Amino acid sequence: MQAFYDRVRTLVRLNQRDSAELETLPWSSKKVGKYRDFVSAGDQPDFAFVVISGWAARYSLKKDGTRRITSLMLPGDFCGIHAVCGARMDHGIMTLTPCDFGRIQRQDIQQAAKVAPGIADALWRAKLIDESILRMWLLNHDDALHALSHLLCELHARASAINIVQEGRFHAPLTQVHLGDALGLTAVHVNRQLKLLREAGLAEISSGEVSVPNISALRQSCSFDPSYLHASVSG
Amino acid sequence: MQAFYDRVRTLVRLNQRDSAELETLPWSSKKVGKYRDFVSAGDQPDFAFVVISGWAARYSLKKDGTRRITSLMLPGDFCGIHAVCGARMDHGIMTLTPCDFGRIQRQDIQQAAKVAPGIADALWRAKLIDESILRMWLLNHDDALHALSHLLCELHARASAINIVQEGRFHAPLTQVHLGDALGLTAVHVNRQLKLLREAGLAEISSGEVSVPNISALRQSCSFDPSYLHASVSG
DNA sequence: CGCCCTTTTGAAGAAAATCAAGGGCAGTGG
DNA sequence: CCACTGCCCTTGATTTTCTTCAAAAGGGCG
Known about the structure:
Two copies of one chain form a homodimer. With 235 residues, the first copy, chain A, is of the alpha+beta class. Chain A has helices spanning 2-11, 16-23, 106-115, 117-139, 144-161, 176-183, 187-199, 215-221, and strands at 28-32, 37-39, 47-53, 56-61, 67-73, 78-79, 92-95, 99-105, 169-171, 204-206, 209-211.
């Protein structure tokens, strides 16, 4: 759960009480294999989850049978905070790799949020960031190349934040089909845009490894401004 | 503020204490003219706002100068719950009509959420619904006609919920440019799709009035399922 | 080896953007 | 009262972007 504790601390500055409350939160671990439906649409989970290790994705199935990925989750990310208010899931969550989740009971997280305002704040901030990311996905869906570059920038930034980027490279278990599902494009077209990025020397994906030799250049190419990812910790 | 109180009660079942807390929340009113930037990106508001009357829209300006509307707000909707955790706004809010806003101080809403768990739940649910709507916008952006129909269904449902629909008609201050900004399409293309809907007898917009003679037919045409808009009150 | 999944590339077709022009209507000012 | 102006809606023609269909090549793994 260190990934989770670390994440919370990037979201808000915790006082001693918050901190103590956070680290004594009761939780249990749940391991899930690759490409599993971890949570299904319609569920009304009694737990909130935290990605401890692995990658997962929120997705919805459309009427025409195609899948649309609406967000990607990396270690440290929350999912199913819906549990906090007992709402029903309107989308599913699938694993992209074998995953290790931390599971926290609804009443425990509710209690913690009540006793430790810092934790409640952190949950809010996490949700606002989710929303910002979603909004960005909406914003950038006009031009395919722009959208792809922006997504790679986002993933690079989020991967950096959890220290899994080394020399501009990080492992991301995304096939071109996944990227297409996330960007609302066909895999074929994703392939062509990736080729452009590769030829421009801006980014490359090969065997599950994203390589960005010059992140500034990539960011500039799609006007990426990372500030929306954390909205500056000042609380 | 009745619109707000009503809205909260559609989100959660309040007990007496929650109810009392809600209706004694200190607030002040703020009137804003049409087409005004009510909140700007980068602001760190000390207030949460509630739309008492009028329509407003969240939007972002893209690097190429175009505007993208990322959500529409009707009477009763919250905005700037960011204030709850002191985060910075990553988007602006503009009015589409003259608007009347209710303004609640950050500490007051925080206090209310702490004392009355029902209110905290309501805020969470409101945010989850915002997120669901955003997700739907992402989901439906593939086919222009589908997207437009779905948006009209969403607005019809939300307008119904606040009792402003009469005989399939409701006032919506949206120009074709606004619709284009919301759907990520050009106004020209919106115009063509509206023509199709009109010719199919499914929907019509004229002088700011949306007319849906047969909502079931419109819903069926775009597989609209309204459940995502409230996620069933069971808390 | 052979199979499946993923990536790659080509060619044709559909969807939406762009460019361009005209019309209706309300408000403004002569 | 009427011309003028600005905004919004409408329509047509052309071009760009993305999808669809199709086929083939690479790579990991039983």
